[in-house]
Amino acid sequence: MNCRDIISSIFSNFFKAKESENSFTITELVKTLSSAKSRGIGAEFGRKVHNFWGDPFAVAEREEYLSPFPLAYKLGEYWIYGVADLIRFRNCLPIEVIEVKSYDKYGRYEVLQVTFYSYLTFEAFLR
Fold first, then answer.
1. Which of 6, 47, 78, 86 could form a disulfide with 98 if both were Cys (CB 3.0 to 4.6 A apart)?
2. Model's pTM, two decimal places?
3. Angle made by CA atoms 23, 29, 33, in degrees to the nearest 5
C-alpha cells in the first residue's frame, strides 16, 4: 500500500471506531488502568485541541512532517482510538510519538498514554 492509501485507511478506521458502540478511547483506557485524575489545563481544552490537525496527506508529500494524528485499531471485537498530540514522520514513516503536557511531572498515566498511541501508530503504519 502506498502512503496515501495507508492514510485513507487510517482515517476510515478512526471514523468507524468513533461511531462504533464497541469502542474505547485511549483516554478512557488509560484513566481506568492508571486511576489518574485530570491535571493541567483540562480535558475539555484537550478535546478541542484534538479536533485540529493539519493536512494528513502532507505526510505523503513531505520528507518530514509533524502533526496531531487520529488513530484507531480493532483489537478483537473492540476499537481503540484517539488522536495523538503529535507524530513525527520521515518519508511517510512515523519515527516519534509525542504527547504534550501542561505540567512537569509524569507518572503511570502519561507512560500508558504514549505507549497506547505508539502501539496504534505501529499497527496503522508498520503492520
1. 86
2. 0.81
3. 150
Nearest to 63 by CA among 35, 91, 39: 91
Evaluate whether 13 touches 72 at the Cβ level (below 8 Å): yes
Q: Which of 123, 3, 6 is CA-nearest to residue 72?
A: 123
Distances (CA, A) of 39 to 27, 68, 106, 107, 110: 13, 20, 11, 11, 11
Q: Which of 72, 123, 113, 117 is nearest to 96 (CA)?
A: 117
Residue written as grid cell 520528507:
63
CA distances from 87 to 24, 78, 114 (A): 21, 24, 11
How many residues comprise the chain? 127
- DSSP code at position 41: T
Q: In one letter, which amino acid is 66? A: L
**Segment 76-114, tens digit of pLDDT:** 999 999 999 999 999 999 999 998 877 777 788 888 999
Residue for grid cell 492514510: 7
DSSP conformational letter for 93: E
